[in-house]
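re the bet — no i am not wrong, look at it urself. input seq straight from the record:
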Amino acid sequence: MEKNLQNKEALEKFIQLVDEIKVCMFITNNDGDALTHTRPMMTIETEKDGTLWFFANINSIKVDEVQKEQEVHLTYAHPAKESYLDVWGIASVITDRQQIKDKWSPILKAWFPDGQDDPDVALLKITPRSCYYWDAESGRMVEFFKMEILQVPGNPKIQKGLSGKYSFNY
């Protein structure tokens, strides 16, 4: 059975799932090595185009790993609702003070006691490349959408735009 959604519907479903679950397991790869590091992270914002935002300490291992290997893997789970999301994306570290202030939330003081002006505060911007979610009705993992990675001068791993391929196939 195949169930196709229009681009807008698929993106809205993605945003809804991320916003409902919020916390993901954020997985980085150590410079292309087989070793990965996994840690829980709270999604601070999901943009209308699917871009995900997280706060991080600029001196953390995850930031170091993202700077070496931009591909990341995020898994979201809400077992009570049988909602599971598997996201692969391209990460970048953002240190722009205005963006940090715009995305700041008081809950972050637990990790950054000096607030949004803490010099160690950074953002991780994740541009999804592909996404799958668990469809409880069919009992299958469903391809949610794919995005093409377009070459950006100076950094071939940074993504620039969507391919427009959004569908649920099962």
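see?? Residues 111 and 156 are 33 Å apart (CA to CA). told u. also Residues 1-6, 148-170 have pLDDT under 50 and may be disordered. so pay up
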